[in-house]
Amino acid sequence: MSIAKFPLPDVGEGLTEAEIVSWRVSPGDKVAVNQTICEIETAKSVVELPCPFEGEVSELLVAEGDTVEVGTPIISVVVQGNAPLLSEPDSPANEPEGDTGAEYKLPNLVGYGDSGDVKSRRKRAVNTAPISTAIPVSMVKAAAASDAVMAKPPIRKLAKDLGVDLASVTGTGMHGEITREDVVGSASQASVFKNLTTPQQPSKREERIPVKGVRKAIATAMVKSAFTAPHVSIFVDVDATRTMEYVKRLKSSVDFAGIKVTPLLIMAKAMIWAIRRNPMVNSTWTDKEIIVHNFVNLGIAAATPRGLIVPNIKDADSMNMLELAQAIEQLAATARDGKTTPEEMAEGTITITNIGVFGVDTGTPILNPGEVSIVALGSIRKKPWVVDDEIVVRQITTIGATFDHRVVDGDVASRFVQDVASVIEEPALLLD
Amino acid sequence: MTPATEPMLQLLAPDGSYGVEKEYSRYGEVIDSLGEDQLKTFYRDMARIRRFDQEAIALQRQGQLGLWVPAIGQEAAQIGSGYAVGKNDHIFPSYREHGVAITHGVELMSILKMMRGVNHGGWNPEETRFHLYAIVLGSQVLHAVGYAMGVKLDGKVGTGDLDNDLAVISYFGDGATAEGDVSESLLFAAVNEAPIVFFIQNNQWAISSNITSQTKVPLYRRGEGFGVPGLRVDGNDVLACYAATKIHMDEAREGKGPYLLEALTYRIGAHTTSDDPTKYRDEEEVEYWRQRDPIARFEVFLRRQGVEEDFFEEVAVAGDELAKDIREQTFALPKPPLESIFDNVYSDDHPEINAQRAWLRAYEDQMGGHE
Fold first, then answer.
1. pLDDT above 80 for A83
2. Residue B229: burial class (beta carbons within 10 Å; 0-12, 13-18, 19+)
3. Residue ranges per domain, chain B?
4. Which of A110, A128, A304, A326 to probe the B interface (max B CBs under 10 A)?
5. In this structure, CATH architecture of domain B22-331
6. pLDDT one-digit tens code per residue, B165-177
7. Fewer CB within 10 Å, N side or C side of chain A?
8. Taking the model in full, what pTM does it have?
9. Left, alpha or beta for B109 (phi > 0: left; psi -120 to 50: alpha)?
10. Does the beta-carbon distance from A49 to B62 stay under 8 Å?
11. What domains can you pick out in chain A, each with its CATH number?
12. Which residue has better confidence, A102 or A249?
């Protein structure tokens, strides 16, 4: 027997809230699947809601006449045995403290689910990375003679610009159409300096890019950090083979079905564990005092279309592995969509930066202002490693970390990094 | 309230009594050739699709589907016509043709997946010959005519080779007839003598616009000026819908050119789960059409034909089992991988899509890559 809750669904393609007009059931009533439990009024219509569970109504969580946001639990039902519809709550933030009720899972349906928390939605920055503007291969057959050259106007222009004679190019597109790649390929045969991977020498001797927006903010923060906090960096190589095995096991476990499990998650968990043993690394310097935080707002550096930002997971130390995994996934999705709010970036206490994905072993990260530690996770790759005097192939990574020497001395820094490394080497330490 | 006084092919009256008027005798002959099994299949599938529809509405109200498009009231038009489509023929549906879909082997879960947003349809039109749902109103009618013109160019019409010849049927609603696409389609079909049947389900409401604001002439006559003859059929009479579709698809396949069928029916439910029909139409009107329910009417007919109670009970039980089954399957649907959004944009590699995919992958990697 368990208590199931039904959160208000979005019944009309992007609605954010609804009013409970009337309840058709009362606490103590038996309810069946699809039995109408209440009537709600949305911006579009008055709608009856069918119950997704069978059981006995335990409590009506919203009063008639009240307007609540989509996702707010509105009714709790005592269900018998294993209710297949129940799942763990998506995020602990949705769950009032001390509440043990299982929440019925609302899928985040594509195109919906913005709860309206984000009041102003900034226009997403355009990805300015150079991308080809090639036009997809056409279905059109050339009406002209069989030896006629088939190429779209932009491709013809490109050929002209690159000095390529289209008649000499063999088309690899549909029906022998000449593609952008064909033209570029011919051009690079003619001149090894003209190809896509080596950009042309710009005609101007220099280019001036105005410093503004995120670039300016990044610069200001970095300078402030670099020139007010004396940075000290340390590195350690570590055998991450067991971490990789642990990740693999978690991925295949039932509890983590559909959840993204990565070495970054283990790293985050390792840091939280190491912070508990070395609290000074999780503090703030204010000239007058050092504020040691007994909570961890874990920042994760993210290169987004809007530039580098560091949103943080509030109270990450209170989360279990599953919750932390979900929080990281949520943070990544929000940042990717350009919806990260200033609050989500404020009050971080320590930061992790995952530079390994760029293929580098380590680096000397600069502190996020207000924090005294930042940890860089390097690439994880197979390398020779000595185990019991034998050289064996293991999955090796480098952990690099930078500290504010005003607060963190070499011994504390070393112990902290060693602690993180020992968890990466033996994730079973997290079980203590 | 009801567009009366126009001639209409009806074999089964609302009270379930069967009769064939003299001028429609060739349609009656089609029904004469049907066995009891086929008649039972009509009933079974009409009941099945209605039960499915009801469960899908509930699933949407419970937050499990982004949207649902109910077809309640239109089962006869869909099941009757769907079964009359030949084995080589191609079907170009709108977005409400769940009944037609099941007559051609489309998995019901595929439709639910689409309405949950986890795929774009997911069935293979090469196998089912039931093409993907068209959300853009009337667009599928152009696709259908183009396909039919291609069929003709391929010489697969009127050869007398029943293993090879085929025709095309396109489904659309009264609202779509007001789209330019449909007029263009009628013209191209007519002048090219394309093997196509235009099947209009006139459910009388284009969301909140009544049929009276969509046309000044009955829709079965809409093709006349283009040179496409038409017939009005009682869309709540599964036998009339079957017979009319059978005959006119056969004729299209034989090379007699396009034809238009108007199945006069009624949308009992909302346009979609985002719509509230009580805001624009009277309960009285809905009740009038409830009295003309296609399934109830056919049940009376079957009982008079001697079909036993057992059969109806079996169908009801099967419906509840289906509902339970799709409910469980819907809850178990996995979240599709984010990268799948790039997979079906172009059939071939495309540099811009590749660049976007690469960017997303790099982004996701920094949030815990090394995979």
1. no
2. middle
3. 22-331, 337-371
4. A110
5. 3-Layer(aba) Sandwich (3.40)
6. 999 999 999 999 9
7. C
8. 0.66
9. alpha
10. yes
11. 2-104 (2.40.50.100), 147-165+173-198 (4.10.320), 213-431 (3.30.559.10)
12. A249
